[in-house]
Amino acid sequence: MSFVRDKFSAKFFLFLAIAFILIHVPIIGNYVKIINTLIHETGHAIIALFGGKVETISLFMNSEGATISDQSTWMGSFLTSLAGYTFASFMAFLSFWLLRRKKEILLIDILLAFIFFNLIFWLCSFAFAFLFLLIKGSKGVRDHILLLIAAILLVDSVQSAYEILFLSVLQPQAAGDAANLARLTGFLPAVFWGLFFFLQALWFCFYGFKRGYYKVGF
What we know:
Layout lengths: L1 H6 L2 H13 L5 H24 E8 L5 E7 L2 H27 L3 H15 L5 H12 L3 H32 L5 H10 L4 H21 L8
Antiparallel strand pairs: 1-2
Helix pairs in contact: 2-7, 3-4, 3-7, 4-7, 4-8, 4-9, 5-6, 7-9, 8-9
């Protein structure tokens, strides 16, 4: 038990449970899950900009998203397809890293940057909320909202990676990024990439645990 207490806090488990419940609530779930979709699609877009151009970034009311980019090379298409789930898992890890180091303002700035980067009108509710936290919000409210967002990112990054693995087994042609990577590589099937996305999500979770970033408390 002392080992668990050294690596986790009770508040971490509480907010993880709240996040899990929230993302499965009808309507509300799609709204809060959009933050992970935002990170996912931003990952695609950032990598796409290095070797091509981003034509559109779409976020849908069912919490799904799509990034359409024009790539001039095979490597650019490959890395862009790879970036979404990996970047989402990394951002969940980074969120807890920043919270653990009391850098809440920097985390808000990063989330605001992602929102303005995408320029999606109906995401203004998130932008106004974060701006309010920066200007008027009390430290306690701000920190707990950020912890909830970090927990949502963690839960949804793992759940979405599991879902793409599950889909790559049952419907490999419809498995999103895993299907794109299977088409690009040719010899590696969608299930390989689905498994890769799921394992990297688990790795980020384990590494955050190993470093003690889940022992959060305000």
